[in-house]
Amino acid sequence: MAGNTRGKLKENFEGVHNNFNWSLKHINKSLNLIAVQLMQTDPDKYKKANADEAEVVLMTYPLYAGVKALGEGVEQLDGLAQNIYASL
User: Fold this and answer.
1) Best label site of 27, 34, 68, 72, fewest CB within 10 Å?
2) Alpha carbons 87 and 26: distance in angstroms, whole number
3) Which residues in 60-75 are b (16+ Cβ under 10 Å) and which e?
């Protein structure tokens, strides 16, 4: 355990980074669940041979788009936390 302020801050921001990783893991699991459900419910619309095409069509579904945006926001926040960690 760190004994000084700098060390404690580094520990805290390492924890923030780990929490963001955990969040991203679960966001990605959620995106996968949504995509599988949509592909099973309406395969003609959502099931595509090309992953890029599938992503474009999945983004038309509001829940998928919202969860995807949340993941992108978490990635941005994680980057900021890592930058703070690196500057300590």
Assistant:
1) 72
2) 28
3) ebeebeebbeebeebe
Residue 3 confidence (pLDDT): 76
Q: Mean pLDDT throughout 8-22?
A: 96
pTM: 0.89
Return d(Cα 80, Cα 88) in angstroms, integer: 13
Boundaries of domain holding 63 = 25-87
User: Would you say residue 7 lies in a domain?
Assistant: no
In this predicted structure, the answer to whether residue 1 has a pLDDT above a threshold of 80 is no
Number of folded domains in the chain? 1
What confidence category does residue 76 fall into, taking pLDDT thresholds of 50, 70 and 90? very high
